[in-house]
Automatic annotation (TrEMBL):
This is NAD(P)H-dependent FMN reductase. Residues 1-139 form the NADPH-dependent FMN reductase-like domain. It comes from Amycolatopsis thermophila.
């Protein structure tokens, strides 16, 4: 099953990106989306054909995926604006309706990015997704756990990522 993995961080070398790169390394069929920064600001007046190319590409990839895995940081107690923008562009398409979704939370902060993931749960409800609870996991990752190759080599972390991916594919 093709899993479309979406990084909610635009920071180069983020732990969210490292987690998704590691997911791609441990499981075949994981496609990591790299186009977050190319999406235009959401405008309902522009949510019509012809769509901006970046939006059409995003929607096609979402529609083609068997499941979606998110990995996003928290900014100011909520979802990053650029990531929320991606979700806003997804609303009108129906591409995620009924689609199994999950997320891996890599935050090592004291709050564990709880605000971002509560917001994500709410938005995914509006998108009509099927949240796979076993694929919604908190796996703290610190920068020192990311190797020079951009991957996480800790076997315990890799096992938890593989388990979340397996949960998604079993739905």
């Amino acid at each position: 099953m093709q899993i479309f993995a979406v990084n909610g961080s635009m920071r180069a070398g983020s732990t969210n990106g490292a987690l998704l790169a590691t997911a791609r390394a441990v499981a075949p069929g994981v496609e990591v989306y790299e186009g977050l920064g190319s999406l235009p600001h959401f405008n309902p007046d522009e949510d019509r054909e012809p769509l901006p190319a970046a939006v059409a590409d995003l929607r096609r990839r979402l529609a083609d995926a068997g499941a979606v895995l998110f990995c996003t940081p928290e900014y100011a107690g909520a979802l990053p604006g650029s990531f929320k923008n991606l979700l806003d562009w997804s609303v009108g398409s129906g591409a995620m309706d009924g689609k199994p979704v999950g997320w891996v939370n890599v935050s090592s902060s004291i709050t564990g990015a709880a605000g971002a993931h509560a917001s994500l749960r709410t938005v995914l409800g509006y998108l009509g997704t099927r949240i796979v609870e076993e694929a919604c996991v908190h796996v703290p990752v610190t920068r020192h756990e990311v190797g020079a190759d951009g991957l996480i080599h800790d076997e315990a972390i890799r096992a938890r990522v593989a388990a979340a991916l397996a949960a998604l594919t079993s739905h």
